[in-house]
Amino acid sequence: MRTGIIDSANLNGGQQLAVKYFSVAVVLFLAQMLFGLLAAIQFIRPDFLYNVLDFSVNRMVHINAMVVWMLYGFVGAVYWLLEEESGTRIVGLGLGNLAFWVLTAAVAVVVVVYLLVQTGPGNDLTRWFVNEGREYLEAPRWADLGIVAVLGVFFYNVAATFSKGRWSGIAGVLTLDLVALAGLYGAGMFYLTNITADQYWWWWVIHLWVEATWEVLVGCIMAWGLMHVLGVRRRIVETWLYIEVALMFGSGILGLGHHYFWIGTPDYWFSIGGFFSALEPIPLVAMVVHSVYDAGVHKFKNGNHPALAWIIAHTFGNFLGAGVWGFMHTLPQINLYTHGTQWTASHGHLAFFGAYATINIAFFYIAVQTWRGNIWLGGGLAGGGWKWKWALALLNFGVIGMTVALLIAGYEQSFIERAVEGSTWGGYFAAQMHPWFQQAMAWRLVFGVVTLAGVLLLVWDLLTIGVGEMRRAPQLATEAG
Amino acid sequence: MIEPVDPADLRLVFAAAAAIVLGGAGYAGLFAWARLKNRRRWLVGAYVCYAALAAAVLLLARTAHLDGAWQGVVVLMLVGYLLAPHGIWHLCAASHRLERGSRAPPGD
């Protein structure tokens, strides 16, 4: 094993495939930032790039790039841990590589079509080859089918590898979760002319991916990450994984009801959605108790400070973004005003960053560490590790800044557009023209630039951290097993 | 059917909803720390957080018109947040006991 330089000979087959997924994830992360900034500028200067790259396209690419880079990160993280967790060589590596290239080519084609074609006649041709028209799930039908096929290959590789090697608690939860992940996507592929029925099934993908299957997938990745980075014993992480999965599914599945409030479903969804939404922060509060416990019982001895810092950022980001920000507007008495305003965007920015981006970034650092020959990334890094520390600070400061700015804009919209003006078109424009809204959106742009600076520094750090480092990190994962 | 929040109370409702979860986290965190370090002073702080949480729940219930069946949700929220850290703590202690060679966990 060679240390201090990037050498794929240091990686097993699954990890080599994972690195490809991580690389595309980082590129898509940058694309998400770029198109987010363009959309942010267009909130302030609506004529900016008008009829060249319209706001609707920038927003769509911004959100879809985010969804896809999260998925690339998750798939990469699972391939990363697969051989170590199963104790055997990966099954179907060739198929996995083929699926990676097919998916990446498909993503590239879809983005090019979004940018160059943008719209179609609104018939089957458009739906199949341009844009399916479902917000957040805009991929055309051919790409939808491709995504399910690629996730099918991914599921096969994971299940077959664990079946050939050994099963563990993490393996069992992960495999079952992947069935739900691939299966739920099918719910977004019905074509229904009734908008209520269409929205009903569409929410199954949006909510149950994010607040159920992704949270569980992240729980599995986090469990393995804690064993690898901190040396936490397997029995503990698996016990906690079961508890959190039970709490997450117990509250998350019927919490789906908070999306049904305004789409014409029966009134009982007000109570069901409101009640289970109130329960959704409970697993996140449980994580706070557990992290305090672990902070006391375990010393933070580890050889990968950046990864641990991002895992801690994940715990707090998940709690604040998904828990606090989520609960503030999920009761129907409140949601009547906040639904579809920048309040939702505020919640979305912190929740996606806190719950998902952070854990993916932690895995990027785990990957870099092994890729360079399991080098030491703890205390005493060259330059005091200023790049990863500043990247962490700028990214968190930037995202929290955007969250607060959007919260102010959302509050103004809720108050003026919804409460005072009664959700009329006049109210909509009055809110959009209000100085509070415009100032908040300007601050969102400023903090977006701060976030971009953090991402650029992060990429620079990932490319350079540990160059020439000869010290080896302790093999905690083996001891934890 | 639900009765929406009075526009004049919007700010109070948002603040109360946020205070519920933050109070819950403060209560859970301080409770866990107090049991871990066996310090009663921190436990007092934990219950102060819970009192703040309870006040926020009552404020939310009043301003968001949580009447009728919604009052059941209010009671469940209060009881749930009170008991959850206790239950989670015992689960923590039980799971970590395996790691600590069957020694009693701190504060247990």
From TrEMBL, chain A:
This is Nitric-oxide reductase. GO terms for cellular component: membrane. PANTHER family: CYTOCHROME C OXIDASE SUBUNIT 1 (PTHR10422), NITRIC OXIDE REDUCTASE SUBUNIT B (PTHR10422:SF43). Coiled coil: none annotated. The lineage of its organism: Bacteria, Pseudomonadati, Pseudomonadota, Gammaproteobacteria, Methylococcales. Keywords: Membrane, Transmembrane, Transmembrane helix. The chain crosses the membrane at residues 21-41, 61-82, 94-117, 142-162, 169-192, 204-227, 239-262, 268-295, 307-328, 348-368, 388-411, 441-463. The keyword DNA damage does not apply. The keyword Transcription regulation does not apply. GO terms for molecular function: cytochrome-c oxidase activity; heme binding. One of its GO terms (biological process) is electron transport coupled proton transport.
Automatic annotation (TrEMBL), chain B:
Keywords: Membrane, Transmembrane, Transmembrane helix. It comes from the Bacteria. The chain crosses the membrane at residues 12-30, 42-61, 73-93. This is Uncharacterized protein. The lineage of its organism: Bacteria, Pseudomonadati, Pseudomonadota, Gammaproteobacteria, Methylococcales.
